[in-house]
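Predict both folds.
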Amino acid sequence: MRRRLDARAGFLVVAFAFAATTAYSTVPTPLYALYAERHDFGPLVVTLVFAVYAVGVIASLLLLGHLSDRRGRKPLLCAGLVLDAASALLFVLWPALAGLLLARVVCGIATGMVTATATAWLVELWGERRPPSRPAVTATAANLGGMGVGPLLAGVLAQRLPQPLRLPYLLVGGLLLLAALLVAAVPETVARPERPAPYRPQRIVVPRAQLGRFAGAATSALTCFATLSVFSSLGPGLLADAVGSRSFALAGLIVFVIFAVAATTQIALAELPAPRLAALGQALVAGGLVLLVLALALPSLPLYVGAGVVAGAGCGALFKGCVATVERIAPTGARAEALAGLFVAAYCGTALPTIGLGLATQALDAHVALLLFGAPLLALLALPGRRLRQPAGIG
């Protein structure tokens, strides 16, 4: 008979599963340059391989992520972990372009399932214990922290050991299957109804009374994810071409630092009011984009790292402000639907702007392409994003 974990141990297991999922989602980051070299991929193809992940996440958030509220946390989380492990196997067995695209879409679908389910399960497993902020802090650390660990792990393995396009996926795939086995012993917190409700996709509810503020949150979230995506998708290639570094470990380390700074900033500034978080985050994101253009124009590795740190801190603060704003203005009983709209906008930032940047790099120098990429993002921060900086109650 399978041993059943208590709620405290289950909390740690779910956090581990969440971190393993987000770590796997960024494992390919330092390896894109190697794929490009072996298969003669250009920046546009690399960007497409990266961006189709967002398509999978968005589809999953709309079609699958909310099912754990009615079907139970355990089945959805286990299914997501197994699906992610299957995606890792696709990377190993089918390293051609079609296989990479399929593996990334499957990874995105699994990530959407796990993110929504694990976040809710952590809150329920923690219950009324103190401090009440522990589930939110843990979810942030698992999400952004895992996204930083994945590239670091893959980069070190690719730099030091043979089979750089196989070993990272086999290792993380094994961790995902281990997490699924452990999750099977975590107590379920959702009572399944005797008669399941008819299936419907996740609704997206935009609060009409606060449409301007919601638009500011959505566009700012899009800007955050687009900025982080530059470092995650084209970053290793930019390092190789402009800065002159072809170290997989260094590429993974830089991405790790960026996401670690983003996670640390969110946790450190958790008590700051949303308008102040937004103002600080918008200023830092803008500064990070400017530094990135300068780093590639010079070129300068220290300036590139500095751009990543500043942008990472800004994205951490700004996205925290976006989530807090939407939670506050969401209609009663529709918070999940409003947050779904925010996350869909955010993941559109992972796909659309980065594809545009990949297209631009086909015809322009990298720093010129980044100027064209950064200008619309800065406009989104300055115009609709200004609503986030207003005190509560101002439309």
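Second protein follows, with its predicted structure tokens after the sequence.
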Amino acid sequence: MRLLHTSDWHLGRAFHRVNMLGAQAAFIGHLVDTVREREVDAVVVSGDVYDRAVPPLAAVELYDDVLHRLADLGVPTVMISGNHDSARRLGVGAGLIGRAGIHLRTEAARCGEAVVLADDHGDVAFYGLPYLEPALVKDEFAVEKAGHEQVLAAAMERVRADLADRPAGTRSVVLAHAFVTGGAPSDSERDITVGGVAAVPAGVFDGVDYVALGHLHGSQVISERVRYSGSPLPYSFSEADHRKSMWLIDLAADGAVSAERLDCPVPRPLARIRGDLEELLADASLARHEESWVEATLTDAVRPDDPMARLTERFPHTLSLLFDPRRTETEPDASYAERLKGRDDHEIAEDFVTHVRGTGPDEDERTVLRAAFDAVRTDAFENEVHEREGAR
């Protein structure tokens, strides 16, 4: 069976001030063409279909368009909700849509329910594990600790139990939206650390033939059977080195996996340039970036006049301007913001305790701090969910 694995469309999202709807429509066209030309048997979409819970009308229309086009091709599609989606909204009409071959899995309670497709070698069972926020699904899975690893492990127990009741030789595919250990994040993914450590070991997914992951925006191979497709378009300059693509997966009769990486159309390359303004304007080696979307970091000791206007004369698609002035040995150490860069809230709180009393927190105090931050984040997440549903 031939699968096309994609995820993280983020329909409705902009890239800095650039409307990406046209690029997203071009990707959808490319996806449909690929399904037809490469004779794909099933499409799997591993979450973050939309960029926010209440997407703009144009994004909904594009989503509607791709569903119709895939249904017209007669190619089954299995799709899950991600942490950016409203699971309830995305799942509206799932039963009816399923009759057209578009199978939506947005409910935690349905993790163990397979979508069964068949080829010449027998059945392939697809299991959709939508984004599982630990604080909201811990009761559904009856876990003692509300953590990402615990709820995903419980969901996979249901998958394995269902698979065990199926005929011998049934192949299996799991769709999941999660941060798996070994994956490399970028700046454009929403934090999912509510409920403790976000990363889960790949071993959670043992026992299935292929795991189609979503959430991280870079295409990555965790193992031969566990892969991220990545987002089809860039959504932050941290993705400047990404190769935007989808996975074409061939699942053999014995469950063996072979994979081919298919490039996605990107409207412009991304470039990050750095240096004094005059150097950037004169450097001949930067000519290759003149039609790119550019993030420029200026290192001038004194901020120059009208830097954006001057940059866009040479690099008309400059979207982000940062300042990192050179410092001399006599100048003070890095700014407060620079000292905090890369540190999470818990680490900052521990540093504050150390600064105030001269010694850092002990293990019991660290536990209290961690629980307090988790409680605040959980409350914020639940409030966001309530606001989403209240807008219905």
